[in-house]
Design brief:
Elements (H helix, E strand, L loop, with lengths): L15 H54 L1 E2 L9 E6 L2 E9 L13 E11 L2 E9 L6 E10 L1 E7 L4 E2 L2 E2 H4 L5 E7 L5 E7 L8
Antiparallel strand pairs: 1-3, 2-3, 2-9, 3-4, 4-5, 5-6, 7-8, 7-10, 10-11
């Protein structure tokens, strides 16, 4: 018994050119998908960074306000002070404030704490530090409260106008209010205005 087979066009395979064209189209589609994925990923990362910057700025506003509210100065005291002014590309301010007492064996408890905000210039922008210390012991601890900011500017209200610097040694009193303006890396601006709440004792 003999059999015969007839080939028709519907059973023919792919040619090399067709395979190469299909591979090229697939590569283009994959490249587009990868580009879209990484674009979305970068957008999500940028949004996360922006959110974290806002949260840190919000914590800074709260902390700065509380510190200024508790600011304390007495003209004949060796430990109390309030000083501030421009520093490099930013500003710095240093003062004593009422806060929770720092306890240490052999030394009296004190509700007076030294507080300072100052900046450091870096390639990524300004770093804003908050430093605290016991004015009786001199022990200091600092931490970065903001990083990569474009600007940090502190100004002081003397009751009539805003000034860029303050020295309690010459003024013999606290400023009426203090304002800090921060511009984040993304261009967002945060402003905090805080009044000093503790009257400066005379003498």
């Amino acid at each position: 018994m003999s059999h015969s087979f007839r080939s028709n066009g519907s059973n023919r395979g792919f040619t090399l050119i067709e395979v190469l064209v299909a591979v090229a189209i697939g590569a283009v589609l994959l490249s587009a998908l990868y580009a879209t994925y990484f674009s979305v990923f970068r957008g999500a990362a940028a949004a996360q960074t922006m959110l974290e910057d806002r949260l840190r700025a919000g914590r800074f506003v709260d902390r700065f306000s509380m510190d200024i509210h508790g600011a304390y100065f007495k003209s004949n005291s060796d430990i109390s002070r309030f000083e501030g002014g421009p520093q490099g590309m930013g500003s710095s301010v240093s003062f004593t404030a009422f806060t929770y007492p720092a306890l240490k064996k052999g030394f009296p408890a004190s509700g007076i704490t030294g507080v300072a905000y100052f900046t450091e210039d870096t390639q990524e922008g300004l770093k804003v530090f908050r430093e605290v210390w016991n004015p009786y012991l001199g022990e200091r601890a600092s931490s970065v409260i903001l990083a990569g900011v474009r600007s940090f500017e502190v100004s002081y209200f003397n009751g009539a106008s805003w000034v860029k610097a303050w020295d309690s040694g010459g003024e013999k009193k606290l400023p009426v209010a203090v304002r800090a303006a921060v511009t984040l890396a993304g261009g967002e601006e945060f402003n905090v205005l805080a009044r000093t709440m503790v009257a400066s004792p005379q003498g």
